[in-house]
Amino acid sequence: MAGQHKCPRRALLSLVTLKRQPTALSVPSWRAVFGQYLRWSCTVTQAVVLSVVTFCIILPLCCHQLLYSYFFIKSLYLESMSEEVLQASLSRGQEALHFWQSASAVTTSSRFSEITQNPELLVTVVTVRRNEGWDFHYLLQVMWTLSSIVESCGEQRCAEVLVCDVDTGPQENQDAKLLEGHFRVIQRSPQEQQKIREQRINTFEREKRDYVFCLQKGWELVKPKNMIVLEDDALPRRDFFKVVKNLLSRRFAFLSLYIKLYHPERLQRYWNPEPYRILEWVGLGLVGATALLLSFPYWNPFSFSFTLSVSHLLFFTLYFMAVAELLGRHYLLEVRRLSPQLYAVSPATECCTPAMLYPGNASLRVAEYLDASSCAKGKAKDMVLYQMARTIPGERSYSVEPNLITHIGAFSSVRPNPSKPKLL
Fold first, then answer.
1. Under 8 Å CB-to-CB from 310, ≥6 apart: which residues?
2. 159 closest CA partner among 264, 279, 242
3. Distance CA 297, CA 40 (A)
4. Predicted local confidence at residue 131, as pLDDT
5. Is residue 69 exposed (0-12), middle (13-18) or buried (19+ Cβ within 10 Å)?
6. How far is CA 419 from CA 94, 131, 133, 416, 422, in A?
7. Which of 125, 184, 357, 378 would give a disulfide with 259, using CB separation of 3.0 to 4.6 Å?
């Protein structure tokens, strides 16, 4: 504490003395002034050294290979990491293909194909044949994972599972065909497929109509109490159903139009237009700063002179906020996976619909809303849903963090693909 108060006072006294001294002594006096600030007992010196060591040495060394950190070196690691992820997905796709081929050779039917009426939860997987990346077998990967985790809820399955094949091309969706003996697969009639092929509609409108078809058919066939719609490249995590079950036990769920189960990791940063994230960011900084300053009287190996004053609290709040943002919010969110109760629920954001939870009969309302809207470039179905939840009285939408699925689709079925897909 002594260092904190004496450092600026000594400097001020030195300046006053300097004015009274002859000009010949001015250079040594200025050195004395700066010497007061450069002493370790001065909190300004401590703050500068701490910031330089943290942001110029520690964080760059620790985070240069973290994909979603500001310190990630794209030129060194992006290509190799992207290739590694692609190879892992390709390998997993081939394993899934062999699994389902072996299962088909052993039996021609599965108990997953028998769907009970009015289940607590229905998972509908929307799929279409891909012209590129077909050997990754995204659908088979997703269904392989679902078949293993859907049994994790005890005697009764966690959910009924339905595959919705919206392919209308002349060629068959081979992956969906392979799954017909194991899951209920629904698709349009040949006449409807021919009619759609003859229509000239943009890609985004077609994608929306396919989504509406799957929502409506899933409800008509099963009439579930709740519905999840997954795209065929949305790979569920092991705790998927545990977290969903916890979400549905909360009151807010049945006041929602939809709950997003995925948001792109690159868009999860604090420096974001979403207001709630700014509050979370400031709160994290305040908690970290307060905890650190309160710990100094009991543990202070570097002899810091900081105290629980307003200026020091402000400095450490900004310090922890900067550390959290530069490290990457995505990595801080991973701590919440310790328990389903720790997953954060916040107002929904615009982008992306790979995994959506529709509580109660919300899937019917969403199908109705989307059916009455038109989609085009710059106005895809995710943006339409977001605007509806914001403008229609009584409708609300939420998002869960961290993500409940991993988006494995490096090759899109509806948009142009690069020759070598990258993670960023």
1. none
2. 242
3. 18
4. 83
5. buried
6. 21, 13, 11, 10, 10
7. 357
